[in-house]
Design a protein that fits this description.
alpha/beta, Purple Acid Phosphatase, chain A, domain 2, 2 domains
Length: about 375
């Protein structure tokens, strides 16, 4: 759990941001005094609910913790949109003032636009986050792909974040949809959970129903380490998933070989030095000439994967930014935000995630179940 000093600093900063929204927006709204008081009360409640939601599982037991998390995360989603819209409004008003076009009408209706847009984005984002992820079909062209592997099908799910707001019923629908795809292989690329095995094993049990010709494979994400990676590795193995920790398997598919490797999370060594992510170790001893696919939670594993000689890396972690404008901040940490990219001879596919983290909100970055097909490189 974070230190008291850190929590105090965050609480003060968070309070100032809420106060800024209130001071900039509430007096400009064309509503009676009671409406402004109601808005102020919500901002005060949000200031308390968001940190309470983030810390709920450390301080309370379910179902109280889950209910507080729901309230806090819904508040966080709305607050985030209000914050961005308020900042944009202030830029517009500043520009209008410098141009000598400021007016009471602009001040009033721009405040209305802030509240209306934040509510609209939050409602639409909630619907997008809670519905079943759509299937995104992707063809990956590989040079020298053996004929027997043409059309090899991989179903990728990532960043589901089973926890306080995502439960077994949500995961069950994902599993059912994946099974209907009839993949040759299922890849689960990390951040499956937000909580301990004791708390969530009844919900993640649905993963035992995953069906694929060559089985289901899992690699750890950063959230597994927050929740107790060793326990989750054991639990997932019990459910029948093959957990790849800097290692590989060689699949035989209609007479052709395919190397499927997996690495621990990019930051795993901060939790256990023995689990440092190592793409080179993961492929050591693999047969020469066989196509090589790497499961790696974070896209920033890609340079090491390219150096190790992989043909395709499947990643997640970014959520595609989850909702605007945070997608623009992903490149500050990761080389790719979403979709299929090329790094030297390595293809990198980054899933937008099959669930969500924090606010139940997706806007401009829809969740996905990725259905990848290996195809020969043209020419």
């Amino acid at each position: 759990m974070p230190s008291r000093r850190f929590l105090f600093t965050v609480a003060v900063l968070f309070g100032l941001l809420h106060a800024w929204i209130g001071l900039r927006i509430l007096p400009a709204l064309p509503v009676p005094a009671w409406g402004q008081w109601l808005g102020g009360a919500w901002l005060a409640a949000s200031w308390l609910l968001v940190p309470a939601g983030l810390l709920a599982r450390f301080l309370w037991r379910a179902p109280v913790a889950d209910r507080l998390t729901w309230a806090g995360m819904l508040s966080m989603g709305l607050f985030s949109s209000l914050l961005v819209a308020t900042a944009l409004r202030d830029l517009v008003l500043l520009g209008a003032h410098l141009a000598g076009v400021s007016s009471a009408v602009l001040t009033t209706w721009s405040a209305v636009a802030v509240v209306a847009s934040a509510l609209l984005v939050s409602v639409a984002g909630f619907i997008n986050a809670r519905r079943l992820a759509r299937v995104v079909e992707v063809e990956v062209p590989l040079a020298g792909l053996p004929h027997a592997l043409h059309g090899f099908r991989i179903a990728q799910i990532s960043d589901i974040h089973v926890g306080p707001t995502i439960k077994g019923s949500y995961l069950a629908r994902i599993v059912d949809r994946v099974n209907r795809l009839q993949p040759d292989l299922v890849a689960v690329t990390g951040d499956l959970v937000d909580g301990s095995v004791a708390e969530l094993s009844a919900h993640t049990a649905h993963l035992a129903r995953l069906q694929a010709r060559h089985g289901s494979y899992f690699v750890t994400g950063n959230h597994e380490y927050y929740a107790g990676a060793d326990s989750w590795v054991a639990e997932l193995r019990r459910l029948g998933l093959r957990v790849l920790m800097n290692e590989h398997v060689v699949l035989s598919h209609d007479g052709a070989q395919l190397v499927v490797a997996g690495v621990t999370d990019y930051g795993a060594h901060h939790f256990d030095p023995a689990q440092r992510s190592d793409p080179l170790a993961a492929v050591r001893g693999a047969p020469a000439g066989a196509p090589r696919v790497l499961l790696a939670h974070q896209p920033r594993t890609a340079p090491a994967a390219a150096q190790a000689g992989f043909d395709l890396q499947l990643s997640g972690h970014t959520h595609g930014g989850q909702f605007w404008p945070w997608n623009h901040f992903v490149p500050l940490q990761q080389p790719f935000t979403a979709g299929l990219h090329r790094l030297q001879r390595l293809w990198v596919y980054v899933s937008r995630g099959t669930g969500y983290w924090g606010p139940p909100k997706r806007f401009g970055a829809p969740s996905e179940i990725t259905f990848l097909r290996l195809v020969p490189m043209p020419g």
